[in-house]
Amino acid sequence: MSTHTVPSLTVPEAFSRWLESRGLIYQLLVDFLGRKPSLSLVAQWSRNRQMSVAAEMTEGGRELKRYLSQEPNKLPMICEKESKEYKRLMQEQSVSSFKLREAAILGRSEDFCNVLADVYTSAGIVFNKCNGEADDHIAIELEFMAVMHERMLYNSFSIRSAMELLDIQESFLEKHLLQWTPQFCQKLNAATDSPLYLGLSHMLEEFLPLDLQMLRSWRASLESSAATSI
């Protein structure tokens, strides 16, 4: 992922590392919670230089970095082990208490997906769901945040447009992801002893509240900048 930010927006040093890392963190979570870990995927993340910076934001990130940063000849063994665990957790439904969807975790009806579909449509986003995931699937909700991050970073040409994209992301975290991922992570922690999935769970648990806090802080910074420029 490129680390260039929008030229028209001034990004204070306090926010630059977070902005450069958050898209990568969301993408890592999407990749491993949304599909079976192939050897190419494991190798890609084990070699990702930017992961070293992003990993330092959470203890879960440091766990993942330690686990994935192994010698190349060990990666096939990791891939085989974690692919089996993915199938057990995500596909076989052998862990009855572990669910991948917001509606299932919060006990809402199937119609709840329409709420998410409306959010995505309002933002002009249509997902290419290769495996037919529901709109409230953990990977789809996280991918929505990754896409909105990219838009905010590369398609915002004014403070006003940046603020609009901040609104969408803050609202989505508050009304959706942060409403159910604490329970999701608790259930995942209890369902597995995999270093990969425990690391992902810990990262998710730590990062989302931090991300919301940083979005709010950046909003305050942008508002302050706008006020002083009048």
From TrEMBL:
Signal peptide positions on this chain: none
Gene3D superfamilies (UniProt xref): TorD-like
Keywords (A to Z) from UniProt: Chaperone
A Pfam family reported for this protein in Swiss-Prot or TrEMBL: Nitrate_red_del
Organism: Paenibacillus odorifer
The name this protein goes by in its record: Molecular chaperone TorD family protein
